[in-house]
């Protein structure tokens, strides 16, 4: 099918602004990804999948500038023992990073992989992304596969004693960054990966995750506090038998965020929880687009997304649960909710279920609303001032998403940060 | 201490007059009861006094210890010592009962310029109070009123009252939904708070509660007004004969 001319022009403009890394073992994957982009074209305003989010600034050849936000809040995860891997405007910062040696895990830079022929990474890079192109195209992810030069390959072989923390610093107003990560968790192994920081003025991140039988992976990501930054992220996860995958994303501010998550439950008894909490105001636009496919027996999936919007902010949720015909005993749950702190904000949601198996429990719900006046009055009648009562109810609203975080310390820390965000807006 | 003078209230949304000139004074140390047919305006009075939105005061006044209540925000009235035990306590998912109680106690202390209670002090106090109301520790951990039975919600109201130590307590049908034993517990909770500088306004439909909480004064409210005031015997009369005679008499 021929692309609409507009898309084609935009796609060509973007492609001609980029150059692919040359040679190495990922070259084939990169070339294949490039032809995927050329076939589908980059997202345009007319694309159904981009109905609620304007892709223009994510696609255009030159990224809009975004000022670097300075604040005095403690860096995220600062109090935790972790292995730090630091990228500054997308460039690996060796001196700020820890030694990449840690028992139970092997970490390589994508830029090194190319020359080393590491089999598992080569077998994963671009593979899940390519699978994730149907039934809906995700051209920004293919673009990433084709052009990203940096990122990490994390091979979890055991149970590393501490989490791996990818830190994305934003220092240049003109930074336009792509990072591509591949993560493989071996049978029975488990790890926690933390990510934080705005990364760049425009950030395109693609993460491919392969979780082998009996393995588990926890991901907690905080996307920084920079108001003007833009991000399009993709996460593709493939789950084997008896696996657990949990991902939580915190988004505070940011002018444009599109987080796409694609999960395939391919082994029986797998569990996938994908959750997110976001708070934003003004020109904040936040889009969670999730596609969960059940293709094995007795799997559980949960999608929990909560958005607090004020002063004209926009929240988007597109979430789908696809249950294939052999996926009996599927337990699928999806909830997306927005809390509007004023009348100017909007929430656009498209929850979908598509079920081909008969022995399935699936539920989905999507709501948007204001603070419950009765609850607010009840709290105030006990002497809790209006602001504090509103914050208490707002945090309670976010609670179901934050509760998805297993580590209590991290959850508490995140609640505090959310509370501070609210307090700064009183 | 509580002075309500010719209070007229209508709904903000529609032109509907609900309170049509309520006059009522509760002195410190006294227990006043209000009885009256369904829809006569008892809960509306309690809401208006405690600062709920949606009502418009068109005439009259209400003061607590000489301070104009109607000018104050709900939280200011609470800090000034006013407490309403709700007829229908509100469920608040996601807010722990304990967090709620501690936030409320400390917010009021702060508003009054007192030191906040430490976590340990608070815990000790709340445990003692909960024990005497037979509220178990598990209920304290749960979200506010969520999944509580009708009677548990009412006991939770009294727990809040005991923790907040208000000056002026309004109890709106706290007895409804309580079993016989729970009613005794609640009454004991209330009686334990009775003191010479604390006033009570107890809204109820039944003499039962007033057997346990002996009122000094009983008012009958009908159609937005206090139509009759008397001693405890008035409640007995209602219990025996209903409102028909009283209403006919005042017509
Ligand atoms: N927000 C509202 N909207 C419409 N009508 C209202 C509202 N609040 C109160 N009313 C009406 O005002 C009248 C008084 O209500 P209120 O709840 O004060 O009565 P009550 O004396 O407490 O009754 P009950 O004994 O049944 O609790 C009723 O007719 C009620 O329907
Ligand atoms: Mg009532």
Task: Note down, in words, how this protein is organized.
The complex is a heterodimer of chains A (426) and B (251). Chain A has 426 residues and is α/β, with parallel strands linked by helices. Chain A is built from ten helices and 19 strands. In chain A, the strands form two sheets. Chain A has a ten-stranded mixed β-sheet with strand order 2-1-5-7-9-11-13-15-17-19, covered by helices on one side. In chain A, strands 3-4-6-8-10-12-14-16-18 form a nine-stranded mixed β-sheet. In chain A, strand 1 (83-88) and strand 2 form a beta hairpin. In chain A, helix 8 crosses helix 9. Chain A starts with a helix and ends with a helix. The mean pLDDT of chain A is 96. Chain B has a single domain, classed as Rossmann fold, CATH 3.40.50.300. The longest helix of chain B has 15 residues, at 97-111. Chain B is of the alpha/beta class and 251 residues long. In chain B, the strands form three sheets. In chain B, strands 6-9-10-3-11-12 form a six-stranded mixed β-sheet, with helices on both faces. Chain B contains ten helices and twelve strands. The chains are: A alpha/beta (426), B alpha/beta (251). The structure holds adenosine-5'-triphosphate (ATP) and magnesium ion (MG). Adenosine-5'-triphosphate is lined by residues 11, 18, 36, 38-44, 54, 87 of chain B.
């Amino acid at each position: 099918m021929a692309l609409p001319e507009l898309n084609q022009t935009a796609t060509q403009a973007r492609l001609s602004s980029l150059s692919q890394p040359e040679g190495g073992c990922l070259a084939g994957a990169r070339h294949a990804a490039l032809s995927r982009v050329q076939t589908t074209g980059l997202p345009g305003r007319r694309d159904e999948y981009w109905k609620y989010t304007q892709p223009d600034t994510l696609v255009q050849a030159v990224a809009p500038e975004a000022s670097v936000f300075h604040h005095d809040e403690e860096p995220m995860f600062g109090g935790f023992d972790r292995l730090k891997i630091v990228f500054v405007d997308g460039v690996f910062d060796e001196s700020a990073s820890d030694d990449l040696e840690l028992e139970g895990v092997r970490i390589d830079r994508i830029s090194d992989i190319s020359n080393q022929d590491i089999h598992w990474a080569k077998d994963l890079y671009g593979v899940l992304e390519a699978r994730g192109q149907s039934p809906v195209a995700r051209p920004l992810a293919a673009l990433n596969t084709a052009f990203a030069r940096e990122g990490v390959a994390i091979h979890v072989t055991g149970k590393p004693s501490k989490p791996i923390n990818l830190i994305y610093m934003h220092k240049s107003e003109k930074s336009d960054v792509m990072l591509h990560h591949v993560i493989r968790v071996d049978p029975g192994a488990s790890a926690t990966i933390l990510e934080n920081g705005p990364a760049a003025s425009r950030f395109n991140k693609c993460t491919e995750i392969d979780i082998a039988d009996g393995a588990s992976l926890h991901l907690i990501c905080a996307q920084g506090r920079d108001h003007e930054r833009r991000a399009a992220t993709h996460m593709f996860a493939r789950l084997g038998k008896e696996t657990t995958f949990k991902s939580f994303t915190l988004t505070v501010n940011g002018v444009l965020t599109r987080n796409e998550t694609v999960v395939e439950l391919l082994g029986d008894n797998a569990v996938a929880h994908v959750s997110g909490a976001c708070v934003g105001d003004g020109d904040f636009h936040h889009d969670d687009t999730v596609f969960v496919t059940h293709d094995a027996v007795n799997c559980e999936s949960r999608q929990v997304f909560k958005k607090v919007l004020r002063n004209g902010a926009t929240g988007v949720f597109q979430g789908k649960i696809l249950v294939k015909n052999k996926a009996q005993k599927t337990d699928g749950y999806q909830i997306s909710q927005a809390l509007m702190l004023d009348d100017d904000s909007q929430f656009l949601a498209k929850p979908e279920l598509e079920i081909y198996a008969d022995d399935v429990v699936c539920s989905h719900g999507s709501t948007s609303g204001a603070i419950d006046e009765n609850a607010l009055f009840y709290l105030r009648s006990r002497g809790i001032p209006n602001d504090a009562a509103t914050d208490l109810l707002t945090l309670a609203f976010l609670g179901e998403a934050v509760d998805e975080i297993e580590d209590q310390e991290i959850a508490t820390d995140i609640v505090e940060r959310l509370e501070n965000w609210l307090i700064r807006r009183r | 201490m509580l002075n309500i003078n010719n209070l007229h209230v209508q709904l903000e949304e529609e032109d509907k007059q609900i309170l049509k000139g309520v006059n009522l004074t509760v002195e410190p140390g006294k227990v006043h009861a209000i009885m009256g047919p369904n829809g006569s305006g008892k809960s509306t009075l309690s809401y208006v006094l405690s600062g709920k939105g949606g009502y418009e005061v068109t005439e009259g006044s209400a003061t607590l210890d000489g301070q104009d209540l109607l000018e104050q925000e709900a939280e200011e009235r609470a800090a000034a010592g006013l407490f309403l035990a709700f007829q229908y306590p509100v469920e608040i998912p996601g807010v722990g009962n304990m967090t709620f109680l501690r936030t409320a106690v400390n917010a009021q202390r702060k508003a009054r310029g007192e030191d906040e209670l430490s976590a340990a002090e608070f815990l000790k106090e709340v445990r003692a109070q909960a024990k005497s109301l037979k509220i178990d520790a598990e209920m304290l951990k749960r979200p506010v009123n969520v999944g509580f039975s009708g009677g548990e919600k009412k006991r939770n109201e009294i727990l809040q009252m005991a923790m907040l130590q208000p000056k002026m307590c309004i109890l709106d049908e706290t007895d409804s939904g309580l079993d016989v034993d729970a009613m005794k517990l609640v009454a004991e909770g209330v009686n334990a708070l009775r003191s010479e500088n604390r006033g009570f306004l107890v809204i109820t439909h039944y003499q039962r509660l007033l057997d346990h909480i002996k009122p000094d004064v009983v008012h009958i409210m009908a159609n937005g007004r206090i139509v009759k005031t008397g001693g405890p015997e008035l409640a007995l009369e209602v219990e025996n004969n209903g409102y028909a005679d009283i209403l006919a008499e005042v017509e």
